[in-house]
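Morning, I've got a small favour to ask if you have a moment. I've been staring at a protein lately and its backbone has me curious. You're getting the sequence in one-letter code plus the fold written as tokens. I've dropped the whole record in just underneath, so have a look:
=====
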Amino acid sequence: MRKILPMLWASTLVVLALYPGGAAAQAGNGVLLPAEQRKQAPELGLEDTAGKQVNLKDYRGKVVVVDFWATWCHGCLQEMPWFGEFQRKYGDQGLHVVGVSLDVEGWKVVKPFIAKATVPYQIVLGNDSIAQKYGIVNMPDTFLIDQEGRIAATYIGVVDKNGFEKNIQKLLAQK
């Protein structure tokens, strides 16, 4: 992934310049979009640590946090405890957190890391294809998905914890 990040930067900038409707372009940094302006989130179709395929369509009716991260990303490591806290606090109310690792070394580095860090939410292994679908050019990048599978807010870089939690609360209240 480290080798292709520069390529992703360039290709994503070109795509965003030509097509302003891309996933990363549509919500600004943490702005909660009105429902009528939200676009369908790209499907994940990725395997978790148990080998189970994770699809966003399986979480319709729930608010989903999709966080793109890597074990070497300092901002990602800063956010992980917050996402764990939100999963514990709001999981019973309909929140589901999915961490998408973009580590090049794959499960070899991810499984030991999440075991040691005791990450309390679902982790899947991403790939170049999903990174491109979401317009990932750097990490962390986080997407807040509404109950209908649409991107409600996009966060480029480390999220503002309090603002992020307020957006979770607003979405959960929109049952």
Observations:
- The first helix runs from residue 5 to 18.
- The chain has one domain: 5-173.
- The chain has a mean pLDDT of 87.
